[in-house]
């Protein structure tokens, strides 16, 4: 059985500046093939929740499971991967080329704190599904009041 790599962390600080990313996103909207650095893309993702868990669904068709990496903290999730480019036919004239290749990274902030000990991930038909158990908010704790 193959496993999807899941790492746990507390901080997902990025070294990229917001200004550089916004310029790159602006030009990518004109032409998806444009990138200031290496080619990067952003797969479509859904986040939804039930009373017990938060579910993240990522559309990552064409990516081998070995090229996916997931990092979890109690409030965020980072999903990274790489989709290898299919060799182009040299003598062909392409009329449409919308499929994006290369690396991607998405950091998603979760709507509720999660229990990092109760996480599962599965990959089927091009969709990565990550199930994150919520930390129960109905736990009560008695606090002792001290003098002074």
What does this molecule look like?
With 148 residues, this protein is mostly beta strands. The protein has a domain at 41-84 and 101-136: Sandwich (Immunoglobulin-like). Helices cover 9% and strands 38% of the residues. It has one helix at residues 18-30, and strands spanning 5-8, 45-49, 53-59, 68-72, 76-83, 102-109, 114-124, 127-134. The strands form 2 sheets. Strands 1-4-5-6 form a 4-stranded mixed β-sheet, with no helix packed on it. A 4-stranded antiparallel β-sheet has the order 2-3-8-7, with no helix packed on it. It is elongated and about 85 Å long. 11% of the residues are buried. Mean pLDDT is 81; it is low at 32-37.
Task: Give a brief outline of the structure.
With 148 residues, the protein is mainly beta. It is 9% helix and 38% strand.
Give the topology, please.
Layout: E1 5-8, H1 18-30, E2 45-49, E3 53-59, E4 68-72, E5 76-83, E6 102-109, E7 114-124, E8 127-134
Parallel strand pairs: 1-4
Antiparallel strand pairs: 2-3, 3-8, 4-5, 5-6, 7-8
Q: Quick one: CATH class of the domain at 41-84 and 101-136?
A: Mainly Beta
End-to-end separation in angstroms reads 59 Å
Series of secondary-structure elements, N-terminal to C-terminal: EHEEEEEEE
* Approximate helicity band: under 10%
């Amino acid at each position: 059985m193959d496993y999807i790599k899941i790492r746990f962390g507390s901080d997902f600080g990025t070294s990229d500046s917001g200004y550089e990313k916004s310029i790159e996103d602006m030009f990518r909207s004109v032409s998806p093939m444009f990138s200031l650095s290496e080619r990067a893309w952003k797969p479509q993702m859904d986040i939804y929740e039930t009373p017990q868990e938060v579910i993240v669904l990522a559309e990552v068709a064409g990516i081998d499971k070995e090229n996916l990496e997931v990092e979890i903290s109690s409030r965020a999730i980072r999903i990274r991967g790489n989709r290898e480019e299919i060799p182009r036919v040299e003598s062909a004239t392409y009329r449409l080329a919308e499929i994006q290749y290369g690396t991607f990274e998405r950091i998603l902030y979760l709507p509720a704190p999660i229990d990092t000990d109760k996480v599962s991930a599965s990959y089927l038909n091009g969709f990565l599904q990550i199930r994150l158990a919520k930390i129960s908010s109905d736990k009560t704790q008695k606090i002792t009041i001290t003098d002074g």
